[in-house]
Amino acid sequence: MTKKVLLVGVGGVGAIAALGLEWRKQSEVTAVVRSDFDKAIKEGYHIKSVDYGEIKNFKPSHIVKSVKEAVNYGPFEFIVVCTKNTPDIVLIEEVIQDAVTDETAIVLLQNGIGIERPIIKRFPGTIVLSAVSIIGSSNHNCEINHDYIDKVSVGYFDNNVTSKEEQERVAKEFVELYSTENNDITFDPNVKYTRWKKLVYNGTLNPICALTGVDVARLEMFGGTNALVRQAMYEILSVARADGVELDKDICEIMIRSDDPLWYSPSMLIDMRKGNYTEVQVLCGNVVKIAEENGVPIPILKVIYDLHLVIQKSKMEKNGLIELPKERFIPDKEHPPL
Amino acid sequence: MTKKVLLVGVGGVGAIAALGLEWRKQSEVTAVVRSDFDKAIKEGYHIKSVDYGEIKNFKPSHIVKSVKEAVNYGPFEFIVVCTKNTPDIVLIEEVIQDAVTDETAIVLLQNGIGIERPIIKRFPGTIVLSAVSIIGSSNHNCEINHDYIDKVSVGYFDNNVTSKEEQERVAKEFVELYSTENNDITFDPNVKYTRWKKLVYNGTLNPICALTGVDVARLEMFGGTNALVRQAMYEILSVARADGVELDKDICEIMIRSDDPLWYSPSMLIDMRKGNYTEVQVLCGNVVKIAEENGVPIPILKVIYDLHLVIQKSKMEKNGLIELPKERFIPDKEHPPL
């Protein structure tokens, strides 16, 4: 019997996930598509994939504009969230709430640390899976360029309600559903470790490249990696340790060298160049939060975060999410910062 | 007898200084003009000044393209340097060296801390004056808009060769030469104090606005002033103290409020918006240097500086001052950061 899967956010990652899930005809994917909807419903996606070759006119089983509309094709056993993770702009738990039933497991196929907290809080007892993706894939107007293997670690964020066995069973079920002969989807017994490990890169090189406007190669050659990144990585290690995850210091050099010999532009840098919001909350803000909860000093990461926070708010202003007063005011208790 | 003055750099500050110096016919100003030369020599400057009213076709006594050419109108008793202060891009001591004689005093009418060091080192025994300007004035293609009084504190950077009395006498001579009934030029007995005080603003609000892309009002309303600026100012106070200057903590709030109620964009922010080099070395780099010499921890200022340093080098690359290797390399002893 096919499983019903709701997939929210068809970017580079989401498109390949939709394809992988439909590949063995074991899932029926309903995809929520926003900006590309008209083209996607008419022509589908044009995929050039290192895993699957060229596929023209790929369409998931159903393409809809909203989660509300998607509910007609439910109930869903899995809701796979592949959107950019910007909880300061959009709350995932609100986006998906209409589609969550007692039978649903939520899969966060997204970047960041601590991203499960608001989901588990909003849907207590629901199984929430962590999916950490290593993939090179982009979507420009339904043209999917996928040039690095779809490699995903899947585990569960313990919801402290369901038994560990059951959470593990569901995680493995999702691995089975998503696995094809072409991709590399594995069960991850230690979600926390995997997420912190990825954050050694994504919480340092990524936001620092974004602030300075240069790729990782230039950052290193211009002295920024020595001056800032390595120390910032050590700060991540300290926070991870306080959060119960021991990462070997060698991981820092591995991450710094991980893009060699590419002049690689990390995601936040690309977002900055496009004037888009960045994933600052899940890559930086949540680290600051966990550090503060545990009393871990993070002098570099804190400054990086505070700078990005101002930039993010400035974008909110440009997009009309923040309205400025006519006259400059002094933030105080009655007028807190915007 | 008129004094011969060489003025290097006719921006908003330099144009009003040239006007002030020529005002009472006691100085003969030779101005070195680069980008505006053709227009300046033909039409002069169109000045709209809060101090002097509207003046059309203002020309200093001589307008030349280079210091080499200026030497024909010397020897100069004063060389007034009004250029943007970017020692990582241009060395002032090299620019002016052909015009410095035994009779010359050099006036640094420029921003920053520690800016006298390379000048005194290069011209030992030469009197070097400090001129700190509070002015609102801009130059766009020989159109000078001057909207806040020309207020300058003039003192001397002790060169440890000439007697203090003689250095003070020369500083006061310059004050006399520059003073008109319209401006406010005063002798400053404590140059170091004045420069550190101005740096409480210019070493914090200025580079932080530049990194976040917002004016001082938005920075405050978006939380950046509380999160970063105030603490960064305290760091400046610590470095100043180690450098022998005691600044009252109240100065921080005074600086934070000094632009009220304007939505003011500081100079480094304007430079960033224009894609220009910033004065990062004299506003941030020299603070880091003095802090390190004295073992003063400056966690925030260090990060701000390191980020700006990468940005500055990225601009050098764009302008062809730094040539990147074809292949990404790993900085080491043989291949230091660029």
Automatic annotation (TrEMBL), chains A, B:
It comes from the Eukaryota. Residues 190-307 form the Ketopantoate reductase C-terminal domain. Its EC number is 1.1.1.169. Keywords: NADP, Oxidoreductase. GO terms for molecular function: 2-dehydropantoate 2-reductase activity. GO terms for cellular component: cytoplasm. One of its GO terms (biological process) is pantothenate biosynthetic process. Catalyzes the NADPH-dependent reduction of ketopantoate into pantoic acid. Belongs to the ketopantoate reductase family. This is 2-dehydropantoate 2-reductase. It comes from Debaryomyces fabryi.
